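ingest -> validate -> predict -> emit
validate: passed (alphabet ok, no gaps, 364 aa)
predict: started
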Amino acid sequence: MSGVGSEERAVETSAVFSTPAAGAAVAAVAAVRAHRRRRLVLVLVAGILVAIAIAFVALSLGAAAVTPDRVLVTLLGFGDDRDRLVVFRLRLPRIVAALVVGAAFALAGAIFQSVLRNPLASPDILGVSGGASLGAVFAILGLGLGGAAVAGFAFAGGFAVALVIWLAAWKQGLHGVRFVLVGVGMAYVSGAAVAWLLARSDVRQAQQTLMWTVGSVADVRGAELWIATGVIGALAVAVALVAPRLAPLSTGDDRARSLGVGVDATRIVLLVLAVTLVASATSVAGPVAFVALVAPAIARRLTADGSPALAVSVVIGATLTLAADVVGQFALPGVTAPVGIVTGLVGAPYLLWLLARTERSARA
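emit:
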């Protein structure tokens, strides 16, 4: 995450210090930037097309099978009552929920990793998602609440854990390593508290809390879904407004200050937006594991320009979550797994690979 590629820095330096070559250097910079834009557009378009293809498959599969041609006819407004019920009432809300939740976790993960300059700094590993789960489980098992109140407690739990991490990590400014270490500790504390609450409950109550411990989009629909979509969409717009300050911040505090970026204020605003994204997504679907960790890493590798790759992270996160939900529903006949289980199975090996790679880099 260097922010500015070595090739571009070289030609920029040439433009400043070698006047005869300034024209060629400027042209080279323009060519590099044009190449980056083309690659970004290509990655975004490819990701969106893959997501649309998976959504089309998800609309076709299920106990009430709808052939692809009938799905298309129904989406165009010409289907019969049975197909409209299946497509619009039963399956489309689940697909939208997976896309929105995945996009929110991925965007939050990209912000965390860029602001803290640590590829392991994702909300689930730092305990923010765990705090939201703890709030929801406490509302269900400890207070006997349900419905919107549970979502409210999940939201409050995520913010409470983030506030504790922030206060514990602050020492004349926010230190990224301290933030990550405190966050990992809070993740264990939140997980232990959830396990304790589950151990004290009976089996039926424990089943009601399943979504809040593993993550599921199966029952996210109606007003709950559209409110979450509106909130997460508004947060994404807010992130887009602040995003121009993220690239310099990801290159280091001194460089960011030299470019006129208010480091602490920008970091606070971005992390508050990221925590709100996580809390919003977790409040409706529970903690969908590893999307926030994996999606930004894939996005940065695909763009390969050293930027935070926020837009690509959103597309990758939405696509991964939708694909995981489809796999969880249909990969094994007679077995349905929540989306959080599938993303956990994919994300755990990636985390081990990332840890091994980090250790090799440290030794080099």
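DSSP finds 17 helices and no strands in the chain.
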